[in-house]
Specification:
By secondary structure, the chain is mainly alpha-helical. It folds into two domains: 61 residues, Tetracycline Repressor, domain 2; 111 residues, no CATH class. It is 74% helix and 0% strand. It is built from nine helices and no strands. The chain starts with a helix and ends in a 6-residue tail after the last helix. 22% of the residues are buried. Keywords: DNA-binding. This is HTH tetR-type domain-containing protein. GO terms for molecular function: DNA binding. It comes from Paenibacillus riograndensis.
């Protein structure tokens, strides 16, 4: 991808994020996105078939970038807490993006769940899930939705507690909720 294409896609992503602050994706037209981005509709259609496709690609990019960021974490004694804290730091550093994408953007909650699920899958070894296989999908659903609710509350509250404190809380809740299967 050349520099011009990267700039076009960046402008379209920024325009979509800006529009998602006030509208759901179903209410946003390609014409609006192009007007906000300062790009011709024909240029938009060179890259995307619809506003929904643009949103889907943006979501994939966010998940990819988040995963790449988290891969750079060096192992330490408190790996689980450090991993969650790094994820929270990444959200806080990109707060404008995550406020829209985790709180306002979609008619459904699929993206936030996919993002959190992708992050938690990497933390599986830290939590040492001693859960019978028949309960694993339920356990992940619980951890994903619980963590998502905590993170959304943290964003709404203006990041009032540190990422370390919140990471410790999430990790502790996850570990304590799984203790009953250890027996």
């Amino acid at each position: 991808m050349n520099q011009r294409e990267r700039l076009t896609k960046l402008l379209l992503n920024q325009a979509l994020i800006s529009l998602l602050k006030d509208k759901s994706i179903g209410q946003i037209s390609v014409k609006e996105i192009c007007s906000t981005a300062g790009i011709n509709r024909s240029t938009f259609y060179l890259h995307y078939a619809s506003s929904f496709e643009l949103l889907e690609k943006l979501e994939q990019e966010i998940i990819h970038n988040t995963s790449e960021y988290l891969k750079k974490i060096e192992p330490s004694n408190n790996d689980g807490i450090r991993y969650i804290m790094s994820f929270l730091d990444y959200i806080k550093k990109n707060d404008a993006l995550f406020k829209v994408m985790l709180l306002k953007s979609n008619d459904t909650m699929l993206f936030p769940q996919r993002l959190i699920n992708g992050v938690l899958k990497n933390i599986d070894s830290y939590l040492q899930l001693n859960v019978p296989d028949k309960f694993k999908q339920y356990t992940y659903a619980y951890l994903v939705n619980g963590s998502l609710a905590i993170i959304q509350e943290w964003i709404k509250d203006g990041f009032s507690v540190s990422s370390l404190e919140l990471a410790q809380l999430i990790f502790s809740l996850a570990n304590h909720s799984l203790v009953s299967f250890d027996k």
